[in-house]
Design goal:
Elements: E1 7-15, H1 21-29, E2 47-53, E3 56-62, H2 71-84, E4 90-96, H3 103-115, E5 119-124, H4 134-147, E6 154-157, H5 166-176, H6 194-210, E7 218-227, E8 231-240, H7 243-250, H8 255-272, E9 275-284, H9 292-297
Parallel strand pairs: 1-3, 1-4, 4-5, 5-6, 8-9
Antiparallel strand pairs: 2-3, 7-8
Helix pairs in contact: 3-4, 6-8
The structure holds guanosine-5'-triphosphate (GTP) and magnesium ion (MG).
């Protein structure tokens, strides 16, 4: 009897900002490897997540959401996402069925059709009232007609939040990948560097707590990480562009920064299964998001 075939390949997850790419990756992996927030442009790096099971191994790359870029950081993020598809066996384009199509969705479809990369669509948020994939399907038809392309992408309607049709999506992904041995050790979930992951968890809490008040350019850098057996000591700096923003992040009598610190400690303790002592400082770094040296230090360039 033949051994069951083992499929393996890289699936690059792309789409407009805030459509639910990172939520979907976490749902598929059953672990939080990529941060999620209601604020657009949450993911700023390529985050790799490896799904290993009896059918084979899918290496997912979560990418920053495409958006109208302002400044160097925005341009780097868009470039990262566009560049990532060069490594794909398959591109998964995530669309937001609870929102109308945007120019960025058109841009992705056009790019994928033109470059002739195998791709499929997951229309996300089908748990929301008013969900519809119709306008996006019309968009694909119109672009195909314009570009003289006769193929059709595979479409699925899912909810990354509830998990609806996500198993079906995984089955479709496996079916489209080549027969190949695993690329990574079966125990590996992600190879995203720990200091960057910790900085992201803290940034996620900043995004969630500040939300409407969030300064446009904000970043977190882990200055110190001491991994003790019973407790990890972490010191991190929060970068803002102006001194007025420092007050927003700290809040009245330090209330906001304490909330952010506590929420980050709780989540980090859960993720790394160790007690966490987190210290946060807010630093004014005028123009940090335009400074390539700082962007590199933050892991963005
Ligand atoms: N209702 C609903 N909300 C969802 C679903 N998936 C994600 N969201 C929400 O959509 C928002 C954005 O989710 P993310 O996973 O951060 O989106 P993203 O595409 O990774 O965003 P960027 O990293 O900014 O590009 C969050 O508030 C999520 O909770 C879904 O299936 N249903
Ligand atoms: Mg994301």
């Amino acid at each position: 009897m033949n051994a069951p075939e083992h499929r393996c390949g890289t699936v690059v997850v792309v789409g407009r900002a805030n459509v639910g790419k990172s939520t979907l990756l976490n749902r598929i992996l059953g672990e939080k490897v990529s941060i999620v927030s209601p604020v657009a442009q949450t993911t700023r790096n390529i985050v790799r997540g490896v799904c290993t099971e009896t059918r084979g191994q899918i290496v997912f790359l979560d990418t920053p959401g495409m958006h109208r870029a302002i400044g160097n950081l925005g341009r780097i993020m868009n470039k990262m996402a566009r560049g990532a598809i060069g490594n794909a066996d398959l591109v998964l384009l995530v669309l937001d069925g609870a929102a109308r199509p945007f120019v960025e969705d058109d841009g992705w479809m056009r790019r994928l059709i033109k470059h002739d990369i195998p791709w499929m669509v997951a229309v996300n948020k089908n748990d929301e009232t008013g969900f519809s994939s119709e306008a996006y399907r019309v968009m694909e038809n119109e672009i195909r007609t314009e570009l003289d392309s006769t193929e059709r992408a595979t479409w699925l309607e899912i909810s990354a939040a509830s998990g609806a049709s996500v198993d079906e999506l995984i089955a479709v992904l496996f079916a489209q990948l080549p027969e190949a041995p695993p690329l990574f050790d079966e125990d590996m979930l992600t190879d995203y560097p720990r200091k960057l992951a910790i900085a992201d968890f803290i940034r996620e809490k900043l995004f969630t707590v500040l939300h409407e008040e969030l300064p446009h350019a904000i970043a977190v850098h882990v200055e110190k990480l001491e991994e003790g057996e019973k407790q990890w000591g972490i010191e991190a700096e929060i970068y803002v562009n102006q001194s007025s923003q420092k007050g927003i992040v700290i809040g009245h009598k330090g209330r906001l920064i304490r909330t952010i610190q506590r929420q980050a400690e709780i989540e980090l303790a859960e993720v790394y299964d160790v007690a966490i002592d987190l210290k946060l400082w807010v630093k004014v770094h005028k123009g940090w998001d335009k400074n390539f040296w700082l962007l590199r230090k933050l892991g963005y360039a």
